[in-house]
Design a protein that fits this description.
Rossmann fold, 10 strands, two-stranded parallel ribbon, 10 helices
């Protein structure tokens, strides 16, 4: 265990880190997570992203009869022709969260390039739906979008798969699965500060008391997601288990240096590069988990937001439009 102190954070983030540690305390407890989801996240459901087209569809599950997946689809106004699709997995440690919490991220990307962002409200482990329910929902969403691309005015090729935190881990797992099964053509992926490794064996996984997320919140989240499994954990449940990353699509990611996912993110990037996969990566010194969400106006947060937005635009031009 490594105890984190205020001096470990970037100067821009020391004040907000105090608030972030309160989030950590709440997220160490199942009752705290339930309260967070009920009072901070669920009220966002149905919120509109002003200045853009906001649609919602309901996708039938192929694994659970009667279950329908709520999917928000956002796109720029006054666009013509089928748009390329980003499938976005929201954060929340696989256990809480809603698509609408990522509106600031969506708005930034939608202002940079013409894209349709499809964000499923996948099933959550804290609600009694551990692995593979959420991943199955994302796969069903991807299949539905491709099958109905014409009527939804979407392209059926050159998909982008993205997500933050637990959603970043889910995005990586989804990318691995759809590539392995040749379900869709993935142009690139953006698993940002992703939750990849249930083993928690790296030095950064031992960080205690870090803002937003620490070793104890991480252990609880993995238990909620995988605690029901007997025997070996499948690699789609914990993407860091995958050793051969050859054939995966170009990847954009970033992570802070003062957070549990630092080392597993760096290892993932190094494995991708060793396999010959183009990557775009940055480590933000002194950054805690999801600092750009809690302190969006801090200079370091603006740098992180610009890095991911500019990276998206660059990869869009390179791998989708071929410019």
């Amino acid at each position: 265990m490594t105890k984190v102190t205020t001096s470990d954070y970037h100067d821009d983030l020391r004040l907000s880190a105090r608030q972030g540690r309160a989030v950590t305390w709440i997220a160490r407890r199942r009752w705290g997570l339930r309260l967070m989801h009920r009072f901070a996240m669920r009220p966002m459901i149905g919120n509109q992203l002003d200045g853009f087209v906001n649609d919602e569809i309901h996708v039938p599950s192929t694994t659970t009869p009667g279950h329908r997946i709520r999917v928000r689809i956002y796109r720029p106004e006054n666009t013509t022709g089928p748009l390329p699709v980003m499938l976005y997995c929201h954060g929340g440690g696989y256990q809480v969260g809603v698509p609408e919490q990522a509106h600031p991220f969506f708005e930034d990307l939608l202002r940079r390039r013409d894209v349709a962002i499809a964000a499923p409200a996948y099933r959550l482990s804290l609600a009694g739906h551990p692995f593979p329910s959420g991943l199955d929902d994302c796969v069903d969403t991807i299949r539905h979008l491709r099958a109905h691309a014409g009527e939804l005015d979407l392209r059926d090729d050159r998909y982008v798969i993205a997500g933050h935190s637990g959603g970043g881990g889910l995005a990586a797992a989804l990318t691995h699965r759809v590539v392995d099964a040749d379900i869709i053509d993935v142009a690139f992926q953006m698993p940002v500060y992703p939750m990849l490794d249930h083993r928690m064996v790296t030095p950064s996984a031992e960080l205690d008391g870090t803002a937003i997320w620490d070793r104890r919140t991480n252990a609880l989240a993995w238990d909620n997601y995988l605690g029901h499994l007997d025997g070996d954990v499948p690699e789609y449940a914990s993407p860091a288990l995958r050793e051969d990353l050859a054939g995966l699509p170009p990847t954009i990611t970033w992570v802070g240096s003062v957070e549990p996912f630092r080392d597993e993110t760096i290892r993932y990037v190094e494995q991708l590069e060793a396999a010959g996969v183009p990557t775009m990566f940055r480590l933000f010194d002194g950054g805690y988990h999801a600092f750009e969400v809690l302190a969006p106006e801090a200079p370091i947060s603006l740098e992180a937001i610009e890095f991911q937005g500019a990276g998206f635009a660059e990869y869009y031009d390179r791998y989708i439009t071929g410019e």
